[in-house]
Amino acid sequence: MQASAYLKLSVVTALVTIALKTAAWWWTGSVSLAADALESLVNLAGAVFALAMVTLAAQPPDAEHPYGHHKAEYFSSGFEGILIIAASLGIFWGAYEHWRHPEPLESIGLGVGLAIVSSALNGALAFAMLRKAREARSVALEGDARHLITDVWTSAGVVVGLLGVMATGWQWLDPLLAVLVALNVLREGVHLLHESTHALMDEALDADSLARVQAVLDDFRHPNTLRFDHITSRVAGQRRFVDMHMHMPSSWTLGRAAALRTSVEQALMSAVPGLRASIQLLPMDVEAHFDDPKDLK
Q1: What are the residue ranges spanned by the domains of the chain?
Q2: Residue 294: pLDDT band by 50, 70, 90 thresholds?
């Protein structure tokens, strides 16, 4: 199943869970269940936006975007982080109002049952989405899956708290739970926003991928006839890139040099799935100095 199909399923699941949690809040009057329903509403908005960004990211390169649209997924993760933070502020306000004007809860058992059903739906979907996100290296899918996992923990906390209200009659547990939910939601929102911001800064390949790149280059290196330098890498959505200079004797023909470069590129892309390698050919006695002030003018 494609990443977009999982996100469409996430939209449908969000609609179902919103209906379940809203009904639970309506019957019980619980502010913690209202907070849980609000988080599911954020899930829906996030899933819709993530679907739009994944669709955009899948578009082929064009004249205005010759390197593709892969970074669109990071906007999805950042947008969802902002939505989560906004939802946490709304939950804080609702908890404060309920603390000032507490009302007795009703039909708690029914509300707990609906919360458990919605949590089970989110948990099953989050597990499948997270596995697909790692397989496809989809930032948008991972962000949505992690938000669903946060929702599962939120619902679990609400259920435990409402059972505590039933057992003790302490109505103040409900707004206290809402505050704890808000803190958890806020933490996840800040984390997603932080991750998407760093990703937009063109981070290098992960340590494992870099090690595999170096292993391939080590297989081709020769002290007198072949060396590599100025090796740089970056990640853009599902795509990974590595650039480098390959030095060889100036006596080699262009055809021989190009054939060897092709072999190196193919070996790199086989070792690191999704990698795009770009290699510039240079003679052994020629160096490129990127940090030379003259080159920066």
Answers
A1: 3-199, 207-296
A2: very low
The pTM assigned to this predicted structure is 0.53
- Tell me how crowded residue 2 is: count the other CB atoms within 10 A of its CB: 13
Question: Which fold is adopted by the domain 3-199?
Answer: Alpha-lytic protease prodomain-like (1.20.1510)
> Rounded to an integer, what distance in angstroms lies between the CA atom of residue 162 and that of residue 108?
7
Order of strands, sheet of 239-248, starting from the edge strand that comes earlier in the sequence = 227-236, 239-248, 275-283
Q: How far is CA 163 from the centre of its chain?
A: 33
One-letter-per-residue 3-state SS of the chain: CCHHHHHHHHHHHHHHHHHHHHHHHHHHCCHHHHHHHHHHHHHHHHHHHHHHHHHHHCCCCCCCCCCCCCCHHHHHHHHHHHHHHHHHHHHHHHHHHHHHCCCCCCCHHHHHHHHHHHHHHHHHHHHHHHHHHHHHCCHHHHHHHHHHHHHHHHHHHHHHHHHHHHHHCCCCHHHHHHHHHHHHHHHHHHHHHHHHHHHCCCCCCCHHHHHHHHHHHHHHCECCCEEEEEEEEEEECCEEEEEEEEEECCCCCHHHHHHHHHHHHHHHHHHCCCEEEEEEEEECCCCCCCCCHHHHC
Helix axes 173-199, 31-57, angle to 10 degrees: 20
pLDDT at 46 > cutoff 90: no
Q: How wide is the angle at C-alpha 141 spanned by C-alphas 80 and 148, nearest 5°?
A: 65
HSE toward the beta carbon, residue 102, CA cutoff 13 A: 13
CATH class of 207-296: alpha beta
pLDDT at residue 15, as a whole number? 84
